[in-house]
Design goal:
By secondary structure, the chain is mainly alpha-helical. Helices cover 74% and strands 6% of the residues.
């Protein structure tokens, strides 16, 4: 049973990464019908939504694209910033989706931002407490560690609606902006769905790990 568990938490993230890299690699070689670069796609969608103050910047790395709500900047990796592929357009539109969420005070996005400090503390200190609790057979210390970890898991779970909503907005915006044709929607969705899978995998692994620790805690309390 333990071997199956560890196989799952290793295989699930690897599978998700393979899917997203495979989809991105495939569709980054296919230019969109509009021929627009990722930067142009992002600018058009931002302007369509009145987000003239949101800047677009190039950022190094592969699939390092993100939206920074603190500085109101959409950052696109080099290939997506300058490239005119379906994959680049999809990723750019997705990140702009987060900017639109920010503009509209999307509830789950605000909740996720509020959870960041707590989630960081949970991620950094939970394992220290849990390992110490296991070594010294102190169930209460494990329980405190589990509570800290639960905050980090909650952050992962709240991330799911944020990412799925951003992808949904991306599809609507990219079509209305005339970036892709109807026959390109299927390919665009494949890129967005593959990217979303990485968040699903991360949340699944986090939940599995939390459940395992809860079982360890309940086992120790029964023995006391």
């Amino acid at each position: 049973m333990i071997l199956v568990y560890f196989a799952l938490i290793i295989i699930i993230p690897i599978y998700a990464q393979i899917k997203v890299k495979s989809a991105y690699k495939k569709y980054s070689k296919i230019p969109s019908s509009s021929g627009m670069t990722g930067a142009e796609v992002a600018r058009r969608i931002l302007d369509q939504n009145g987000l003239y103050d949101v800047r677009i910047e190039e950022t190094p790395g592969l699939l390092s694209d993100h939206y920074d709500p603190r500085t109101k900047v959409v950052r696109l990796s080099t290939n997506n910033y300058y490239g005119n592929s379906i994959a680049g357009a999809a990723v750019a539109a997705h990140e702009v989706g987060h900017a639109i969420q920010d503009q509209q005070d999307y509830a789950f996005l605000r909740f996720r931002h509020a959870l960041v400090p707590v989630a960081n503390i949970g991620s950094n200190f939970s394992w220290i407490l849990i390992i110490a609790g296991i070594i010294f057979t102190m169930a209460n210390l494990i329980l405190v560690g589990i509570i800290f970890m639960a905050a980090a898991v909650l952050f992962q779970l709240v991330t799911l609606p944020v990412e799925f909503n951003a992808s949904s907005r991306a599809m609507n915006e990219i079509v209305s902006a005339g970036v892709i044709r109807n026959d390109e929607e299927r390919e665009t969705k494949k890129v967005l769905n593959a990217a979303a899978l990485t968040y699903v995998a991360a949340a699944a692994v986090a939940v599995l790990e939390l459940l395992r620790l809860i079982l360890i805690y309940t086992g120790m309390t029964r023995e006391e």
